Amino acid sequence: MPHPLSQSVPIPKPVSLFHTIKSDSFDFYSEIGYSLYMPAGAYRFQVGTIRCTVLSDGYFSYPAAWFFPGADPEELAAALENRRLPRDRILSPYTCLLIETGRHVVLVDTGAGAGLTTSGAIGARLEMCGIRPRDVDTVVLTHAHPDHIGGAVDERGRPAFPNARYVLSDTECEFWNSPRAGLRDACLPFDVKVAMLETARRCLQALRHQLEAIDGENEIVPGVRAFPAFGHTPGHLALLIASDGEQLLNLGDAAAHPLHLEHPEWHNGFDQAPAQAVLTRRCLLDRAARECMHVMAFHFPFPSLGRVAPRPAGGWEWSPGW
Ligand SMILES: [Zn+2]
Predict the structure, then answer these.
(1) Domain of 225: which CATH number?
(2) Which helix (H) or strand (E) holds 106?
(3) Coil, strand, or helix at residue 246?
(4) pLDDT by residue (tens digit) across 251-291?
(5) pLDDT, tens digit, for every residue of 221-234?
(6) How remote is the CA of residue 270 from the centroid of ligand 1, in Å?
(7) Domain total for the chain?
(8) Is 20 part of a structural domain of the chain?
(9) Which pairs with CB-CB distance under 8 Å and at least 24 residues apart come from 213-218?
(10) Euclidean distance between the first and the last CA atom of the chain, given in angstroms as a whole number
């Protein structure tokens, strides 16, 4: 006999609900604040005429020393305590960016896939936004670290987005595929470096027929440009989304924690060329502050959006929000 609740409670159909929001009832929901109807872990906003949605793939808890290996331990502990954050662990979000231009569906970074127990939600987040894997025509990988490329390949080892071209820099592609690729200057345990290398090579191999390696600055689709922001990895990219006078700068991993803004000299243990990464970070933040850009950073607290402004004491201040 069926459970009594199964007869009396209607089961919602999220897909048809989203079709309703996106089509004829869109204006109605816009007027009353349609972001209320976005699923948890998603936040939608406009950059001019371009619709953007940040999507949480999950998070991972890292030892604090991996994020700030060069910081003075006492200064770091005080900075974390001031923010009521744990001293020894960094709970780091993974936030991908969905860009819908009307003609193109672009996903920037794919999360970690099934590699971790606390991540791998990107497919579900997209589905709840009404986007099927086959709808994505472009995937941009800011770099090939596991938390960015892991979700590009499904559990069976095939491209997770079957119709997409996968864009990353040619330098990044060459680096990870080189037999001499090493992570000498990254301040991480050896087994972590080995796992990163293996994941990048496995994913790039699986994606090889759909890869588009770009050289220098490129327009990915109208309104979306990728440009070199090297240092975190040899071919790390940042993105600029621009439309109707509005600009969003996606830093990728050029800064991995708001403390990297206040202390830009505190490099990230994952930075493969620490000095270059710090220089890149300063250039990007200086530009973002000067041009009053909206900023997105993959590992910043969700929804990973905000603005930056110079601090009198040096570095930059992070003001979260849109
Ligand atoms: Zn990352």
Answers:
(1) 3.60.15.10
(2) strand 105-108
(3) strand
(4) 999 999 999 999 999 989 999 999 999 999 999 999 999 99
(5) 999 999 999 999 99
(6) 8
(7) 1
(8) no
(9) 213/168, 213/169, 213/170, 213/172, 213/173, 213/174, 214/167, 214/168, 214/169, 214/170, 215/169, 215/170, 218/167
(10) 51
Give the residue among 300, 303, 211 at the shortest CA–CA distance from 254: 300
Q: Using the Cα atoms of residue 148, residue 153, residue 159 and residue 162 in order, give the sign of their dihedral.
A: negative
Compute the distance from residue 109 Cα to the ligand 1 centre, in Å. 9
Residue span of the structural domain in which 128 resides: 42-320
155 part of a folded domain: yes
253 CA to centre of ligand 1 in angstroms: 5
Does 18 reside within a domain?
no
Distance (Å, whole) CA 97 – CA 54: 5
- Pull the structure tokens for residue 279: 């220089």
pLDDT of 15 over the 60 cut: no
| Ligand 1 centroid to residue 300 C-alpha, Å | 10
In the numeric block, which tokens belong to residue 192? 């972590």
For residue 8, being part of any structural domain is answered with no
Q: What is the dihedral of CA 142, 295, 56, 256, to 10 degrees?
A: 60
Calculate how far, in angstroms, residue 299's C-alpha sits from the geometric centre of ligand 1. Answer: 6
Interval between CA 290 and ligand 1 midpoint (Å): 25
How many C-beta atoms lie closer than 10 Å to residue 178's C-beta?
11
Evaluate the omega torsion of the peptide bond into residue 162 and state whether it is cis, within 30 degrees of 0. Answer: no
E strand residue ranges, 224-293: 224-228, 237-243, 246-250
Is 168:140 a contact under the CB 8 Å cutoff?
Answer: yes
